[in-house]
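#help-structures
NK: newbie question, is this the right format to request a structure? protein is Fe-S oxidoreductase
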Amino acid sequence: MIKMSRIVMNELKNFDIHVQHERPKEIAITDLLNEEKCLSFLKKQMIEIKAPNLSVAASMFSKRYAYLVVSSTLYSMAAFNCALHLPVKACALSKERKLCIQADMCKWQEVKSMEREQWRENVLRSLFSSHITPVLNILNKTSRIPASILWENVAIRINSIYRKTLAKELDPLKIERLNSDFHFLKNASGDLFHLKENPIQHYLKIGEELTLNPYRKTCCLYYKLEEDVEGIGHCGNCPMKRSEKN
């Protein structure tokens, strides 16, 4: 497993995940869960990305954070049948918004004697209930941005990782695994997220459904940034584009 963990860690660097000594940290995620410190962090983000308000800063950050933590976990689950446990207390952000982890606190979760379905539920319950939900809750509380926008930001990352991975995957077993994991997430109960209802169910789509209706239900507010750093004006799946066409 040591060899496998090295292989996967190299892959995870593509998701900007680094062992903490490789990057100086700017804020620990445990600090981010403190309302006062989260507010200070979002105010800094506003200045750095030239966002007009806290809501826009929170939305842009949630998209980035979902890529770092959610996309990386789902990718390693599908590609390698293992996942790096990322407890909040082991994670921090660098100034460049890369994820810095304390490796000794991040254990490898692999399918061993238990059924993969049970393993998958354990991994995803830990990922969402103990990590993503608390982070999004504090962003929602601090910035007053609707939770629906934050959760659709997460869902968009999930759609992207499955769409891109399925597009280039040739192994039938991995394709089956990818589809199974996606549908598990879409049909999971709210309990998986430590919420009353599944917050991403209505935003998850791949395949024909995504092709026929690529647009978001909520707007991530990217268009409100003072500088269009990506040169796109609006996101490709912006619901405002849909309304312009109709």
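mod (FA): yep, format's fine, and the tokens are attached above. The chain has a mean pLDDT of 89.
NK: thank you!
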